């Protein structure tokens, strides 16, 4: 069985299959699973594009909600019936009336039957959100693929329905318990922008040294999520579109901790951050995605201000690919606030043989997250890793870190890393 973590995707070999979502129950709390049909603009065409407890058959039976219970739901999906105007089907899970948060669950699992053995696993520890995008079933040319997502939203079903273009009406008069769930009303047009109640505030950094802050002064704040995405560079090769999201964590004691798919970390113990796994492929229609989650209390847990430096890396085994051509972008998300680091790295000869691009740094002090775009690159042919030191209150980035490969500090890494600074956990 293929296990997919958030950001990973897989080709669907069959157009007709069953999709099952399962999770542990939360006593006294209702959880709903819904499916949305979205156009290329990321919006529904109308309220008929939402499959949920009040509308279990949509698109002439293309998506059917077969069953729902306190521990999950089952959909029957027939992609041959999906209109050409639809680019993706998004599977969403929400907590009714925001009576709990997803951190009450250890994980949510997704299984596909009829497409081989595919299973998605979304860890939920530390999540404070009440709506969660579980997965996307999307077109890639004439093919369909599944991507596991795991992106959280606040305010449950109403917020996420509005984000996809459905205006949710709430009853004005008192109603019985059985009638309290939100009722989708009039759907907005596909080009309508998300309403303010979704609380998605996005800032884009594009120049070296630009910075922004996200406030952490809030109770029950959600996880900090760092998401790196990249695309196929169009060179007609499928074996060299693999980037790795990596992080160096500057602890309050001045030591550095290494975080990568090979050294995944933990949210509940030092370094209070975790890597959600390696993704090895990307296309222009389906970006590669790797995610690092950070406990919002990391500075409190570690006893002081914490710095992080994030980079993407392409191994020499990927061939002479320019990382710049894969257009890496990094987003930092927390409680509806998004800061995007979208720097245009130099391409051409300037990028030849460069294995590592530093996208940005985070500085977390318990009250806020300071995000700074970097844009630095390693020297051509160098496997040295990004290192940070705090100077005059600013995180200064260098390439003084010793090389680290997926196997750790092997003999080759030790040989070429002589004189470089080492990480406490490698």
How would you characterize this protein structure?
This protein has helices at residues 156-163, 298-302, 411-416, and strands at residues 2-4, 9-11, 16-22, 31-38, 50-51, 57-58, 63-69, 72-78, 88-95, 107-113, 117-123, 131-140, 143-153, 166-169, 183-187, 201-205, 211-215, 224-230, 244-250, 256-259, 265-266, 273-275, 288-294, 306-313, 329-334, 337-341, 356-364, 368-373, 385-391, 394-401. It is mainly β and 426 residues long. The chain folds into two domains: 2-195, Lipoxygenase-1 (Sandwich); 204-416, sav2460 like domains (Lipoxygenase-1, Sandwich). The strands form six sheets. Strands 1-11-10-3-8-7-6 form a seven-stranded mixed beta sheet, with no helix packed on it. A seven-stranded mixed beta sheet has the order 16-26-25-18-23-22-21, with no helix packed on it. The longest helix has 8 residues, at 156-163. The two termini are 31 Å apart.
